[in-house]
Amino acid sequence: IPTMDDIDLHSKKVLLRIDINSPIDENGNIIDDSRIKAHISTIKELIDKDNSVVLISHQGRPGDKDFVSLEEHAKLLSRYLNEEVIFVDDVIGPYAREAIKKLENKRVLLLDNVRLISEELIEAPPQQHAKTFLVKKLAPLFNAYVNDAFATAHRSQPSIVGFPLVLPSAAGRVMEKEVFALARIFNAEDTPKIFVLGGGKVHDTIRIIENLVRKRIADRILTGGLVAELFAASKGMNLNPKNMEILEKLGILSLIPRARKLLLTGAPIEIPVDYKVEVNGNVVEEPASKVTGVIKDIGSTTAEIYSSFIKDAKVVVLRGPMGVIEDERFKSGSKSVLKAALEGQGYVIIGGGHMVSALDKDVKLDSNKVHISTGGGALLLFLSGEKLPALEALSMSVVNSSD
Ligand code: 3PG
């Protein structure tokens, strides 16, 4: 794939796709800004080369609580860059286009949440996305497109795959670093490989598990969060109607046949033996066979069992928290598995903003032992050997820089 060294990026107007999709709390505050920090060096490099830089990113999905404007993100970007980042609450309208045209060299502008444009939710091939309103309205205003959004590299959406077909394009430094680092550290011979998979993106995760199992990449998959509940329900465990209702509402019960198929073919998938649940506002630990409350975290016995597996692994990949970590009372499962991974003998890859936010802020991480990826789903698809649409599109990029 072309990198920033392969196209002319001096005194140009550059469209930079970043992924600053961050975990957001009940009050709309950003809980973890590591994805925002990650892109600073790419932006700085483009400023140093006298480019004017327009940033484009998504946050959440329409209908979800974390589907918010990027105004707060702009403030954090300004703080870490030590430069004003102009925020424009528009994406492709006349106001945004005028602001882009007027943007001077060395200045940075952030457009609002790209998923305000409905096209951005459509998964389609690059050729189709190159003809979207988004690409047609924005591309003529730029000389180059840089994709630094490794974390969204698994989505075939217009802001990811549409621009490389019409603009000279390259991978940004975050994208480059992730792809090269992961390719180097993820060695097929290093076994056992343990995947600790939790969180709420169950539809994505089951697809990833299917890949990991088919290609025999994972020696053991330890589940938490809603992923664990899906497999527990698929095994016929009685999760209590309260939890089943939640799974049904989220459309997760429809995944039971796929989960059952995985279990029946002997996939090495482990589920919790106990949970931390909430009953009338109180936190209680309950065995998996007698759940009465709403499941909010894995229990302490599960955390212990998972930790012992993790400590002996050669490679540990953690993605998605074990519980509802936005609530301090349900953070301990995620903290335990992270602690075991960092204390263990294996190489640790941590992905997804939520899991990263469960790390202790003052813990010193050795980069020879730990890779903190900006990616969640993208990371796992990459590790499972699937082609990432963002990289495929970059490899089709037009080569000649136009002014
Ligand atoms: C992620 O957090 O995995 C990426 O930002 C992609 O977000 P999405 O799952 O809403 O497409």
UniProtKB/TrEMBL annotation:
Any one GO biological process: gluconeogenesis
EC number of this enzyme: 2.7.2.3
Binding locations of (2R)-3-phosphoglycerate: R35, R115, R155
Residues that, per the record, bind ATP: E326, G352, G353, H354, M355
Record keyword Signal present: no
Catalytic activity reported: (2R)-3-phosphoglycerate + ATP = (2R)-3-phospho-glyceroyl phosphate + ADP
Protein name per Swiss-Prot or TrEMBL: Phosphoglycerate kinase
